[in-house]
Amino acid sequence: MYNKRFIHNTLIFVPIFLVIMGMCMVYSASCIFAAKKFADDAFFLKKQALFAIGGIIGMFIMMRVPYRYLRACAYPLIVLSFVLLAAVFIPGIGKKVGGACRWLCLGPISFQPSEFAKLAVIIFLSYSLAKKEHKIKIFSIGVLPHLMAVLPLAGLIVLQPDFGTTIIFVVLLFGLLFVAGVPARYLIALGSAAAVAALPLLVYKGAYRIERLFAFLDPWGNYRGAGYHIVQSLLAFGSGGVWGRGLGGGVQKLLYLPEPHTDFILSVIGEEFGFAGVMLVIILFGALVWCGLQVALNAGDLFGTYLALGITFLIGLQVVINMNVVLGLMPTKGTTLPFISYGGTSLVMNLLSIGILVGISDQSECRVRR
User: Fold this and answer.
1) Which of 58, 188, 251, 336 is paired with 362 by a 20 to 30 Å CA distance?
2) What confidence tier does 370 reach under pLDDT thresholds 50, 70, 90?
């Protein structure tokens, strides 16, 4: 039985709890680094708190906005995403960090357009696939237009370069096409072509990707070089044991694990709260994904179903990638842990997505299953 109140409360309070937990961990993980670099141990905590407040306000606003209104925004959002992603390459507007052009700076405000584009792609695909429900098996209608809309965005992200986010875009595209009923033969053929096309990207201006791959296969073989990040992460998990060293008691964050408040914040959780803390995070994300799937199954229309599935899939995919990376089960990708890792654009967009998900649940009546 679909318990709308339980779903509503879970989708609101679990993300808020994760955000609060994230702010505690951001401070714990970053205070030494922040004090050394900015002479303010709460530098990152203050910024994350501002993003969290804005994101939570946005979440409650999106809960009240009829999600069907988003259908009218589908095409403008895709166009805006393309413009923003292209703008990161414009000198004076785009900001290069660590050799990658992933940020836009407009005065004191900086944000990552790829995070905005993730939600835009989900809204566009949900609207377009629902509209073409009865012609989805025709390649020129059900597949080609969606490739033409999403692949240029993925191409711009490759050029930044951000291979991890590119993979997320492609997996989102294929996942929603599959759910919509696109024939498997099309997806297999396209997947094979994408795999072949990705091979040159591993080499072209990307020797570091080869290093990351070898570091993933044998991190201890180059623990002072490309494998350093993974090794320090594994040491953090190992030293945490079952219950951890306690909040603030971690050692790896003391300038051993690079920028532990971002992609590798789960390593700090593992060291300070142990296996129990990591399992709590997994259970909470599992509850979010389960509730998201329930919303999708009970949405009032096909657009709501695809939209809920896309948002749920995006959050779950990022969690799986991040957890596998910090445990050394995947090459490093630069994917943050939703709601917990430091990062304003990611946090705000994830909270807005949750607001949309709650809105779908609250505004939908169960549609009759055929």
Assistant:
1) 336
2) very low
Question: What is the enclosing helix (H) or strand (E) of 23?
Answer: helix 4-38
Domain edges within the chain = 4-363
Average pLDDT estimate for 362-368: 66
Indicate the SS3 state at residue 298: coil
Distance CA 240, CA 326 (A): 14
| 3-state SS assignment for residue 351 | helix
Alpha carbon distance 257, 248 (integer Å)? 15
For 172, the token pair is: 């989102």
Average pLDDT of the residues in 16-41: 94
Q: Which residue in 39, 88, 161 sits closest to 345, CA to CA?
A: 88
DSSP state of 334: -
How far from the centroid of its chain's Cα atoms is residue 234's Cα?
Answer: 22
DSSP symbols for 174-239: HHHHHHHT--HHHHHHHHHHHHHHHHHHHHTT-HHHHHHHHHHH-GGGGTTTTTHHHHHHHHHHHH
pLDDT surpassing 60 at residue 139: yes
pTM above 0.90, yes or no: yes
Residue with tokens 């490309």: 226
